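Quick one, T. Sequence first:
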Amino acid sequence: MITCKSGNTRYKTLFSNGVHEAYADTTEDKGGGGTSFRPHDLLEAALASCLNMYVRMYADKHNIPLHGVSTAVTLDRVSPAEVIFKYSIELDGPLSEEQRQRLLQVSKECPVRKTLSQKISFRNEGEVATGG
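Structure tokens:
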């Protein structure tokens, strides 16, 4: 679970999973300070990091000589009817064409991509009122 807490700086938000903490913010043109990741950046980061880790894990498990992976993700929201995650994967290492193709195929199975590919719904679990 991720929790968020607003601070003293307008729109800058501390988020935490209970172990690690980071900040999100919005751009200056939207009233933020532009000091941290935008929420949409975090969506892109979730997919890019999962693609990266998942390919490396598969390579490790199958003794594929992968030296490194670079991934890039852009969230395209131009069309109001569809959101497109555009991504690229760069594989580094002495890989055969078969290994390269297998790793690119395996990337499609990363857990975040699978999650984002499903029908998504939202459920408000209620409001917690505090004094203030």
